[in-house]
Structures are given as structure tokens and as C-alpha cells.
């Protein structure tokens, strides 16, 4: 695990953007694993800027998102599909059919998860997987106690995660308590993993992930076992190391 501490959230996004653009340069047909949440937004904006200002093309890229809420259709304003369209896909030249987000409306969720795994495999596996981290150390929606070898499946969200994400939902709006998420084993299969953590609310999780034991109690700690994992933090997220 390579640990990189930078001065600010802006610097963390710039570091991540360089990694993505380097990967794209080396392999224009790269398969990217993508994440939602507020952390990746600055990185996505940097990729959009690279597309608009430097002519960087994503036309041959394939993407797979980590997770989606069960019960929200892709056009729901709080779905992760909608988040990705608004914050990245609609602003670059990625082919719509090459973007994948788990289907939160699937009638047979178990089958949809198995198909998602097969799609990742058929695409040749993920070259670079982007991760944020929850305050409890979750990655994707793999909450503490998730199996460290889990695959894409339905997961219950913890009360803390539901509370953390409530800020994105309007008062009284339905907020799901179930998700479809890539498993920890799925994430570990990516050839390279980049986790970005910014802000002091992530400091405890990052101490557990980097200095604690590898444990299902802190899902992000599994990255200690990955051959090519890079963890980029701002000083606030790294404050308790
Ligand atoms: C959600 C997502 C995670 C993300 C986390 C942290 O739970 N499923 O993938 O890492 O939020 O979000 P934020 O970056 O907003 O702190």
C-alpha cells in the first residue's frame, strides 16, 4: 500500500487525475472502476477539464461503478446512475453503452449482481478502481463485517451511513436502506486501486485502514493486502496516523 499525503483536497484530486490520465494514455481502452460521494467530485471535474481543454478522449473507455441504491431508478435524482451522468458521463465523450452502474430496480437482484460480475470479467477486469471511504471504513457499500472476499451483492446500510448520506435527500424524501455493491473481493481484483480520503471526518477510518489490523471491522484495511493500492489523503484525513 502506497500512502501519499498531500496538502489539500484539491491536491488529492490533482494526484488522482494524473493517475487516471496516465492510465488512459497507456491504455486508451482502459476499464475504470468509479465511485460516488462528495470525495470524487473534484477529480471528476479535473477529468472533465482535461477533456474540454486538452482534448483528452474517453471514447474507448469502459466504466463500472461500485454501487447503487436498491429501489431508485437511474433517472431518480438521488440514484448513483444519475450522479454519474450529471457529474461525469454527460460531460465527457464516454460511450453511454460502456458505462455500467448496478441496476437498483432489477427484479432479481441476485441475478443482476451475478451479471454485473460477468460484465466486469468480460470487459477484461478493472484496470484502475477509484474508492472513497465511509467514516466507518466502508468501501463501496461494504459496511463493517462484510466478508473480505465478497462479490457484488445486496447489502444493508448501517444507520450511520444512512445518516451520513441523508444530506443528499430532501426532508421527507424516501431514502433507501439497501444497496447493490461490488464486493470487497471484486474491488481487490482490480489491477490498481486508488482510495482518496479528505477531511477530518475520515481521520479515524484512515488510521484503522492503514495502521490497524486487516479486518472486516474496517473494510478499507484490506487494501494493505493489495499489490498496487495507492491511498491519497489530505492532511486532515491523515491527522491521526
Ligand atoms: C457512500 C458511497 C461510498 C463513498 C462514501 C463516502 O457511502 N457508497 O462509495 O466512499 O459514501 O462519501 P463521501 O465521499 O461523500 O464522504
From TrEMBL:
Allosterically activated by N-acetylglucosamine 6-phosphate (GlcNAc6P). Pathway: Amino-sugar metabolism; N-acetylneuraminate degradation; D-fructose 6-phosphate from N-acetylneuraminate: step 5/5. It catalyses: alpha-D-glucosamine 6-phosphate + H2O = beta-D-fructose 6-phosphate + NH4(+). Residues 26-228 form the Glucosamine/galactosamine-6-phosphate isomerase domain. Signal peptide: none annotated. CDD domains: GlcN6P_deaminase. PROSITE patterns: GLC_GALNAC_ISOMERASE. SUPFAM superfamilies: NagB/RpiA/CoA transferase-like. The active site is at residues 67, 136, 138, 143. One of its GO terms (biological process) is N-acetylglucosamine catabolic process. Belongs to the glucosamine/galactosamine-6-phosphate isomerase family. NagB subfamily. Homohexamer. PANTHER family: GLUCOSAMINE-6-PHOSPHATE ISOMERASE. This is Glucosamine-6-phosphate deaminase. It comes from Arenicella chitinivorans. The gene is nagB.
